[in-house]
Amino acid sequence: MLTRIVRMTFQPEKVADFLAIFRDSENKIRNTPGCRHLELWQDADVPNVYCTHSRWDSATDLDNYRRSALFGQVWPATKALFAAPPLAFSVYPAGPESTSSPLSTT
Length: 106
What we know:
InterPro entries: ABM_dom, Dimeric_a/b-barrel. The protein is of the alpha+beta class. The protein is built from three helices and four strands, in the order E-H-E-E-H-H-E.
């Protein structure tokens, strides 16, 4: 299972526009093959900063979404509302019992 976090800082006056985009697309994203979870977080101290938290069966599933027509609509519209560059990263669970990572620890 791959977890993807995307932290986005919006122009304060554009937050409502972003929320409309997210609400219009969230169920479509959740129904994308390989997507197991999607939620939106708002920063506790900076109200125009949001994070998406999603879980994917694999990096391939996430990459397929990122090449989809849906992403091609959602991301450019969202990106136009930014006040700063986004920070995005993907992580796997860590620990000796974890088998999710494609990397070997040996």
